[in-house]
Design a protein that fits this description.
Elements: H1 11-18, H2 24-34, H3 40-52, H4 56-69, E1 72-73, E2 76-77, H5 89-102, H6 110-120, H7 122-132, H8 136-145
Antiparallel strand pairs: 1-2
């Protein structure tokens, strides 16, 4: 595939989509489009995704693109490193307790809880729904039942 050596006409939309924290698929599709263009703006966005995205699939693909473009950080090629969502167990506990309190959940209801989770922290919801995949619902339920009691 030949690179286009100019800025795409829709660069603002691509940058906006690449910054979308609540949908990894939007970021991934923006990355797929940006990889076709070798301009400074696309290089900057791709580098940021390679260094800082919390969804491993997006980060992995962005690292591949930086390697193909020859982009470096401090003179060294950008490498993938280990998989890390960027969230700690206490982050989940705090968020789950907040959702439980704000939604006044006494008896666990998955749909109500998921809606509250997505409303309170859409980025964490997006990252964990990708990371857990088909086990996302059971992870939520297990985490909720494991919350500290008053």
């Amino acid at each position: 595939m030949a690179l286009i050596m100019e800025t795409p006409a829709n660069i603002e939309d691509l940058i906006k989509n690449a910054n979308c924290k609540h949908c990894w698929k939007t970021r991934f599709s923006a990355l797929e489009e940006l990889r076709k263009y070798d301009c400074q703006q696309s290089r900057d966005v791709i580098t940021r995704l390679a260094l800082h995205d919390k969804v491993f699939k997006v980060k992995e693909e962005a690292v591949r693109v930086t390697q193909a473009f020859g982009i470096t950080k401090n003179g060294k090629p950008i490498s993938l490193g280990k998989k890390d969502t960027g969230f700690k167990a206490k982050d989940f506990t705090k968020l789950f307790l907040r959702v439980k309190r704000e939604k006044k959940i006494e008896v666990f209801n998955l749909e109500i809880f998921k809606a509250g989770f997505k409303e309170v922290n859409p980025e964490m919801y997006d990252v964990m729904s990708f990371d857990k995949g088909s086990k996302f619902d059971s992870w939520i339920e297990n985490s909720f039942t494991g919350l500290p009691k008053k």
